[in-house]
Design brief:
Blueprint lengths: L1 E5 L6 E5 L1 H43 L36
Length: 97
Amino acid sequence: MIRVVVGSGRFVRQMRVPFWALALAGGAVILLGFLLLAFIASLAIFIIPACLIGAGAAHWLGRTGTSSREPIFTRNRRPHDPNVIEGEYRVLDERRR
């Protein structure tokens, strides 16, 4: 028999646990681990090919010719107004801010 301390604070007590109960609990934990591993492996059998097929379809159907190589945010942009000058502003001297 194995002695186990159960509780906390003032409510601590000792219990005797037979070896067969510990072996049964250990076997249940190992069996549960194998079941979880089998479940995750069975999910992976379906999920990995589905992701690969989906990625291939997205790549194949997402192509629109040569315009697919330019960034998305510049595809449907209006032509620039010739009267507008675009530029970049930088502060060179921090004291004159």
